[in-house]
Here is the input.
Amino acid sequence: MAKHTAALKVGLGLLALSMVGYILGPPLYWHLTEVVAVSASSCSPCACDCSSLPLLAIPKGLSNASFADCAKRDPEVNEDTEKNYAELLTEELKQREAESMEKHKRVDTGLLEAKKITSSYQKEADKCNSGMETCEEAREKAEKALVEQKKLTSTWELRARQKGWKDGATKSTVKSKSSVQAS
Here is the structure.
């Protein structure tokens, strides 16, 4: 048991040290490299003329004399190349223009379709709004009719009560009373 706790303490200690190193290591590294760079730059700058040296130096044994001729300008070849280049550019511009016109045509067609669909939806919305207004008017008329009917019902109920009608009277009791009176 004591060995396990000692091993656990050692493991936790190593973990803590590695975390401290992970957190503090990079800033310390960059700080030390700055200090070393400042101390290393204390020497005087080198004085050399690098402009006279070519960027790419080919050893003399491997150089090809005809390589220098490749870079020379040949007016006949250059003219044909320029014509071909101009033709290629013209062809590419025509192709891009044709593609652009095709895209423009598709976009216009899509826009026209969208306008048609929008118009149809607007018509449907107008119909719906009109129907809603009609329904609302009918509802208001029905409410007024209901209020009038309730008034009329209460008037008839009042007259019936004055004539002796009671709430418990049903259709069957009314029939039996009327048949008794008829005999």
Remarks:
- Residues 80-162 form one domain.
- The mean pLDDT is 81.
